[in-house]
Specification:
By secondary structure, this protein is of the alpha/beta class. The protein has 11 helices and 16 strands. Bound molecules: nicotinamide-adenine-dinucleotide. The site of nicotinamide-adenine-dinucleotide has 23 residues, from helix 3.
């Protein structure tokens, strides 16, 4: 310790400033100590150099008790947490309908805010949150952690590097078979349903993957297999300005799941699951060699749909990428310190919600929504 101090005081001013930056720790607190709140605490406990965990507040006393049993300080009320002057950043991990009111209260108390996804339920509500962030000069963002998923980063790499030739179709799916969890996710008023739960992740990924290219039309179908009040799944088709078609699908009654990603380019196709290692790329090696052994069924014959012979295609493993989801917090801390732009911007948040609004509108009207998003 003494040696550290000696070294510190013998540094030139510029180096001291750099060291101070490195030594800057953010004082953080959590609102909503449920499933995802626990996840945040556990992640941030692995970042003691960057984050000091001040405590948590949950509306349920038993959750606060659980927090104390886990060695965390539990604040007796939201007001008490927001009145603690040492707290600089709060993460909100409550049900979706109260993100707006808590975030605005926290920003009005001078706190920087990360909201869990979906940031809120409408574009108008998001605008009020952005206004609060500007009015108070604090940073505000949403936790789009699935931008760090390896399967997504691999799909993005294939798209950006044109590995398959010009990509004309992308299908992004998550399929489960347990219906919707029986909590607030079943309730419309609380922002339940799969569009808000998983859709927002998948839409955000596709809008990031396509690098700012505009969506020109949206068609959506919702499913209500296990739940009438909110959607328990959906299929959405997006058309982009260069003609790219993207299918985004969430299902909760899919006892046989389809691949997480299915990507078609002019020279090859890729399939990728949660486990990237098990995916593959198949590329055409000789386009001209199209002869095939016909597939014969009892009722007919086809050469067009017969599989290619192995001498005209080549298979490759998917590329691998490194990622660390804690970079989300690292970036946001740097944004608070004025050293980096925040990774998930207000414009991106607004675009994600504009897409969600178009999805709900299309499903309700059973119409294609032709709108630039
Ligand atoms: P949960 O029900 O497990 O936890 C929510 C907690 O918030 C509960 O403990 C509840 O008592 C508390 N709460 C409710 N109202 C409150 C209020 N007004 N003030 C303080 N506490 C309140 O739900 P969850 O699965 O943890 O989801 C929470 C949020 O996290 C949701 O917005 C959800 O969409 C999001 N989420 C994100 C991811 C992700 O990968 N980014 C994953 C799961 C959930």
């Amino acid at each position: 310790m003494a040696i550290c101090l000696l070294l510190f005081f013998s540094m030139p001013t510029r180096q001291i400033k750099e060291a101070e930056k490195l030594m800057k720790k953010i004082n953080w607190a959590l609102i909503g100590y449920g499933g995802m709140g626990n996840w945040h605490v556990k992640q941030l406990q692995t970042m003691p150099e960057e984050i000091n965990i001040c405590g948590v507040y949950d509306i349920l006393p038993e959750k606060n008790k659980a927090a104390e049993e886990n060695g965390l300080k539990a604040y007796p009320s939201l007001e008490a947490l927001l009145a603690d002057p040492q707290i600089e950043l709060v993460t909100i991990a409550t049900p979706n309908d109260v993100h707006e009111s808590i975030a605005i209260q926290a920003m009005d108390a001078g706190k920087n805010v990360i909201s869990e996804k979906p940031v809120t339920l409408t574009c108008a509500s998001l605008q009020r949150m952005i206004d609060a962030s500007k009015r108070n000069g604090v940073k505000f963002s949403v936790h789009q952690n699935r931008r760090w998923d390896e399967d997504y980063l691999v799909a993005k790499k294939l798209y950006e590097e044109n590995t398959l030739g010009k990509i004309f179709r992308i299908e992004s799916r998550v399929h489960g078979s347990r219906g919707i969890p029986g909590d607030w996710r079943n309730k419309k008023a609380q922002g339940g349903g799969m569009v808000f739960d998983w859709g927002i992740h998948l839409f955000d990924q596709i809008l990031m993957l396509t690098g700012g290219m505009k969506v020109t039309s949206v068609y959506a179908m919702e499913s209500n297999v296990t739940n009438e009040e909110v959607d328990d799944g959906f299929t959405v088709v997006l058309t982009f300005e260069d003609g790219l078609k993207v299918l985004v699908e969430v299902g909760t009654s899919n006892f046989i799941g389809l691949p997480r990603w299915y990507i078609l380019g002019e020279n090859g196709s890729a399939r990728c699951g949660w486990n990237v290692e098990k995916g593959k790329i198949t590329m055409v090696s000789d386009w001209e060699k199209r002869d095939a052994v016909p597939v014969v069924t009892a009722a007919g014959l086809t050469k067009t749909m017969a599989p290619r012979t192995s001498d005209t295609i080549k298979e490759y493993p998917l590329p691998r990428v490194e990622s660390d989801v804690r970079d989300y917090y690292r970036n946001f801390i740097k944004a608070i310190c004025g050293e980096e732009e925040q990774f998930v911007t207000h414009e991106q948040m607004m675009r994600d919600l504009a897409l969600v609004e178009a999805v709900f509108e299309s499903a309700a009207k059973n119409e294609v929504i032709k709108r630039e998003i």
